[in-house]
Amino acid sequence: MAELGERTVSDTPAHLGAVLARDLEALRKEIDAFPDDPSVWLTLPGVTNAAGTLALHVCGNLKHFVGAVLGHTGFVRDRDGEFNQRGLSRAQLGRDIAETVEVVRATLGRLPADALAAPYPATPNNLTLPTGLFLLHLAAHLAFHLGQAGYLRRIATGDARPTGAMSLAALGAPPAPPPR
Known about the structure:
Layout: E1 3-4, E2 7-8, H1 12-32, H2 51-71, H3 79-84, H4 90-109, H5 131-157
Antiparallel strand pairs: 1-2
Helix pairs in contact: 1-2, 1-4, 1-5, 2-4, 2-5
């Protein structure tokens, strides 16, 4: 196997899990950066979903497509509820995000690398995709909504400070040795 730092290519599912976990933690930091619980549910003209809605949606999405489909967790998704529920506290959203991180890490941490080339076990939108490609799609979907939540927070609160959550160091990679 080709070496990737201390890991090998066979660690690719775990690497995907690390990216998803990092981005979920970044979402938690965005939610926590709102000044109070009601502000997480603010929308603005031209914006349909509040940051709280985005958090519920990505958690439901990942607990379904990673946890239930790949990990056989038994999770039953309520997609309509993701978009209709309101008023949860930042702490409640944070717990949902933390639970999703655990599901993603556990499932992808034990997924064999050869599963990435196999067809994804479900057919989202009646499409047959390789599991690895679908997991990359899920990572892009999360990143898209993470960015939306960050901008909603900045616009709704007037606080332009970044949360600093999107770092390579958050992936757990050791720093590169200094050049000689």
